[in-house]
User: Fold these one by one.
Assistant:
Number 1:
Amino acid sequence: MPNGQEIIYSKRQLWRIPANLAQPGRGSRIEAIAGSAENPAISRPRAGQPARLVFQASNALVTFRIVDLASPVYNDVFQAVRPFPAPSDFIGAGAFSPDGSKFMFASGPPPLKLWTSAVDGTAQQQVTSIQASQLSPGSWSPDGRQIVYDAAIDGNNDVFVITAGGGAPRRLTFEPSLDGVASWSHDGRWIYFTSTRAGAIPDIWRVPADGGEAVRITQHGGIRAQESPDGKYLYYADRPRDGIAGVSKLMQIPVGGGPETTLLNSLTTFWWSVAEAGIFFITREAGFDAIDRFSFNDHHVVRLGRLAQRAAPIGSQLNVSRDGRWALVAQQQLQTDLMLVENFK
């Protein structure tokens, strides 16, 4: 400070501390300046004049891009990429409808909202609004009439079903465990979900779409189950090696039960999606991210193209339409502003 009696410093927010403390301390946060505040600078006014404070305020805005995977690439980079006009309180995107004409996304803060949108970003329609601390879009029923999602209400995360046009949700899970990341089976009879009801390590379970007793599918950990297009196999990410949003193996198990086998040795836990043509996934390379496709026929991996911008930090999802035409890729935009405080004392 100009009087030499205090020091102003930043640790995500602005703090002030006496310069003559006998013992180390934190001082006190400057309550009048809310939100992110970094790199403060203070003017040196004449005696009797108030000081002016300037600082940086940064906001990391997560949005996503709609990528046309069928369009030509230039220098291996996707060109047909369209930003989605997401609301400022956007949380995350979900799966495409079976016909590829719509997708869903969530927004907040509470009450959290689930939306559907046309693939071009228009015709946004609110499906539900709930008082929850977390909401994640799941998938559509095979006929496109219903949506499954999970939400944390009163401290418990459970799976719900609602009609795609809105209405009263129907709760499917009732255990005091973490139940979520849900998806519909190919025939519409089952809903797969990730659950910790058997222990701290999450596994894949399934429950009848009309409600009933859940059955455990995997025994060694599993997250984000998706059925193959022919309904014969279930694909999922195994237990992440760096926490729930880290690196996993992509696994396969017969829908009727059987051995759990590895398809890909390394991929980001939520950066993959099953479509008719194969399994699409994001690969992080030095300097860029790319979208690759694992073929069901020969198990070969083909690079489709590079992304002009990095995908959002680990924890976001990749969603691809059933026909393999469209991809939703989350991206983070860092916005930094300079803020001025007059008469700072």
Note: The longest strand covers residues 326-344.
Number 2:
Amino acid sequence: MRTTFTPTLKWALVTVVVIGSVFLSWVTFELIHVARPHNGASLEFRGFVLLPKGKVLTVLDYLTISDQRLFVTDESTGSVYKIALRGGGLPQSNDVSLLASEPAAHGVALNLSRTLAYVTRSEVNAVDVFDPATMRAIARVPVAEDPDAIVFDPVHNVLYVGNGDAHLATLIDPESHAVIATIPLPGKPEFPVLDHRTGLMYQSLRNINSVAAVDIAGRSVKSRWPLPGCREPSGTAIDERGRRLFVVCSANAMFEVFDLDTQRVVTRLAIGGGPDSVAFDPELQRIYATGRSGVLTVIRQSNADSYKVVDSIKLHYGAHTLVLDPATHDVYVGYAGLLTPARVAVFAPRP
């Protein structure tokens, strides 16, 4: 059967191909070309920490800080990198060590009382236990489909794992390294954050635009609230003293402040595109967020209900993950790499 195209349809197809080619070329250029970010009013760029070269395209995922050690997961190769921070100086290449394994590596959690660490691996549906001092694997714990974020809960002495595609949370005993329970969730979990004051785990649910309060002791979802105006909530952070939950919305580039006492959104701000992770510095009263567009947004907290964007720093396309060092107030952002080594950008706060 012969197919004919009208001139209008032909031009439409040509336009789609051209736009797609231009976009692909732009993304490729952005990933290959690593520019030095500008200093902002609130942050000063200190330099890059280069990671060992991985695949042609290296995508980093979670960043976790514990006891002057920065752990970075490589989603592409499955490696977990440990960077010795050494009291706040800019780390060098010899400060980097790694645990190599199969992809894809995601979240890392530390159990300081037992000097153990844990990493989720979505392609093998497992949580690997490793020694953070020697970066050697110890054990593997099979879990449900698509393990992603992981948090050590010292209140209940369990590891909490968010299983995205399975729509549930897995609880692991850190003593026996065995699954002790699963908690069904009403949607796809993204970033959880523990409220030490109540013992509840607040969990963003990406596909239903909601946040849930998970009762670890009761093995159930205690409450769930919709987030109006937030499409695909991803990263979360908590102000425990101010009783506020901070949520970034990946699909519509918004930052929302949720009042944990009244269960309502009290503030909403536009931020950089595709936000994925967010961190709160209670001492400096700043919130940091970044996403796949490569914009680091800095928000000042005046009080529990008053917030203002004070900086939007252009980084690198795909720089979607960050972590805050509460000891030094430095901010670390993971950069993807195409034909170049992945790296971590280091920023120090300005007064």
Note: The two ends are 71 Å apart (CA to CA).
Number 3:
Amino acid sequence: MELMLTVTAARRSGAKKVTAIVPYFGYRHHRRGLPISTTYSSRFLWSASGDLAKMMQVVGVDKVVSVDLQRPGQGHEACFFDSQIPVETVSTNSLFVEYFKKFNLTEPVVIISPNPECVKKANKFQEKLKQATGIEKIDYGVFLHDIDSATADSIKSTSLDLLGDVNGASVIIVDDVVDTNYPIYPLCDLLTQQGAKRIIICASHGLFTEESCKIIENSPIEKIVISDSIELPAAGRALTNKISQVSTVELISGIIEADVFGNKSTADDDDQYLE
């Protein structure tokens, strides 16, 4: 609501153009079966992010810049905006690759998609990590079930849903959001049972509470790497040192510089950060 009121204030003051920088465009999944919205090409039947998109359009936002909005097939929040409003999505994949270039990865490495929706993102991360590190043995795996609707007991009782061999491997799970009720934690137990030597989570956004930080500290997870799209609470830092953040400041400032001043930003090079 602060954003809405700020936009209307800018408009009343004669602003020629208003760009909303929203690093984390918050969303929750609410799906039901197969119905698809033909207007928005989405399987969402309800989403608060769709309502917020309409409100932003009404108050006068001309452009939206965000970090790692979901892709087509995932619900992609960008589809809620009309075609008249450009929505620019900054990809953090290359930032995470730069982080892991300096991380002590031991072969073999397996990149895991925790659900079918993150397959494309995990595949791109795998390709870029191979090019950046020179590690020859970087394989890929995916959990074939929807962990968002699964319970901890159902995850622990199944092992056939994992496509890929993690025995003796350093496993990196590539996902969108880590939060309090993150269903990946029981999946980490399953990966450990199947012989994973190290488990690292790489996610775009981190929604941490005191409860989730305690779970992380007592889990087999070695490290969680997230962007700084959401501020990490001080209580979380005090409870665990397993969380690291990579900065999106340079990427977003590059977009602003290119948009406002017409200068070529580093974010435009080789389609590295914009997807």
Note: Confidence is low (pLDDT under 50) at residues 30-34, 265-273.
